[in-house]
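Here is my example:
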Amino acid sequence: MITRDQWRAFIDHPVVEWGIFAFGILFMIAAIPVGALPGPGGVFVFAIGLAMVLKTSMWAKRRYVRFKRQQPKVGRWTDWGLRRRSHLRRERLRKEREAHEAAQGDAQAIRGPDEN
């Protein structure tokens, strides 16, 4: 039986990392013709390829973070689609912030615009 540490060591081997990266690129390229077929198959194939590339490429991770900062709504959908744990944390914080802002808005409406 392979242990978790042995698995991580295997995944972190440069040849395996490059292989995962190459297969991720191939999946992303394959999403184009698969997307032309009826059904949502191309989206899933692209998501698998994107997850593989993000797992192995620091350059891709930086580009992904920049994309999410520029397009927050699309970034939320991307995180949800990739099932990222950080998505759950960010969504919880976003909802708490919105609830706090709504509570402040309600308090401001009760006091009136001239009172502080």
Residues 85-111 form the longest helix (27 residues).
